[in-house]
């Protein structure tokens, strides 16, 4: 399960932390000669900056300001109509009363629950502001599947394969990329951090061992897939390279040095 948070930099409002299930994580491989799985995960869980976000809290605040201006305009028009049309003055009074009622609903929502449904109220549309978004692992799965995305989009509109050599290790600790018991609502801070929990809590269910690797050789639009699979019997293990109908035993070092991984499969320890 993953946890995602979006927070407004302008007003500090944070939407509810959203949890979602996943069957794999798609990680963008850095455009460097050599990279690690940890670097790919760090990039995936990094705080992203969004420049086109419409904050619900800022929207309600803008609507409150507009409603106050509308009420003031109605009251000013009512003052001018004291010696004029009684019907128009009454209509203006009804409009001002309705706006005051809406203003109360808006102020209550802004104070307690900006996500509350505001029926019959036309919300303002302020200019998009700056926000941050981050996704972390909330509940590590029993089987963790990582997809290493190697697609590069060229200025010409075409695509190419990122040939970076991704280094593998027998064990993977995902605790730096997982939430703990502490959740932060700050737009500039991670959703959760290691400083807020002890080492044991951080590492609970966060250690994985490599069990299979799918590798791709060739270009972006052509090539060949093969797989490495580990067979474990008690404390003993043997890796196999499977290509088409051929399966041959290989040492662990050959798997870790494959470099061109496409899918990584891990079992939780």
Offer a quick outline of the entry.
This protein has helices at 37-44, 56-80, 86-112, 199-203, 252-256; strands at 2-8, 18-20, 25-28, 34-36, 48-53, 129-137, 143-149, 151-153, 159-161, 165-167, 171-173, 207-217, 224-233, 236-243, 246-250, 261-268.
What does this structure look like?
By secondary structure, the protein is α+β, with helices and mostly antiparallel strands. The protein is 26% helix and 35% strand. The protein contains 5 helices and 16 strands. The strands form 4 sheets. Strands 3, 7, 11, 12, 13, 14, 15 and 16 form an 8-stranded mixed β-sheet that branches. A 4-stranded antiparallel β-sheet has the order 2-1-6-5, with no helix packed on it. Helix 2 runs antiparallel to helix 3. About 3% of the residues have low confidence.
Relevant terms:
single chain; 269 residues; eight-stranded mixed β-sheet; elongated
Low-pLDDT runs: 195-202
Residue share in helix: 25-40%
Measured between the Cα atoms of the first and last residue, the distance is 17 Å
Q: What is the arithmetic mean of pLDDT?
A: 88
What global shape is seen? elongated
SSE string? EEEEHEHHEEEEEEHEEEEHE
Measured by DSSP, the beta-strand proportion falls in: 25-35%
Major β-sheet profile: 8 strands, mixed
């Amino acid at each position: 399960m993953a946890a995602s948070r979006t927070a407004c930099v302008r007003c500090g409002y944070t939407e509810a932390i959203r949890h979602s299930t996943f069957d794999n994580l798609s990680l963008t491989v850095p455009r460097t000669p050599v990279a690690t799985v940890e670097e790919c995960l760090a990039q995936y869980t990094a705080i992203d900056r969004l420049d086109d976000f419409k904050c619900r809290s800022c929207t309600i605040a803008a609507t409150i300001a507009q409603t106050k201006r509308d009420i003031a305009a109605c009251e000013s028009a009512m003052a001018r109509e004291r010696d004029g049309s009684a019907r128009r003055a009454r209509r203006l009074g009804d409009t001002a009363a309705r706006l005051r009622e809406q203003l109360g609903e808006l102020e209550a929502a802004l104070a307690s629950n900006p996500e509350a449904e505001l029926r019959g109220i036309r919300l303002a549309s302020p200019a998009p502001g700056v926000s941050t978004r981050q996704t972390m692992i909330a509940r590590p799965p029993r089987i963790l599947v990582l997809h290493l995305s190697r697609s590069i989009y060229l200025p010409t509109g075409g695509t190419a394969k990122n040939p970076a050599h991704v280094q593998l290790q027998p064990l993977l600790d995902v605790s730096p990329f997982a939430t703990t018991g502490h959740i932060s609502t700050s737009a500039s801070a991670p959703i959760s951090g290691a400083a807020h929990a002890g080492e044991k809590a951080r590492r609970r269910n966060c250690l994985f061992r490599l069990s299979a690797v799918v590798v791709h050789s060739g270009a972006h639009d052509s090539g060949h897939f093969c797989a490495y699979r580990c067979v474990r019997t008690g404390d003993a293990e043997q890796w196999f390279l499977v290509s088409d109908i051929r399966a041959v035993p290989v040492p662990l070092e050959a798997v870790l040095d494959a470099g061109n991984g496409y899918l990584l499969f891990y079992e939780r320890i």
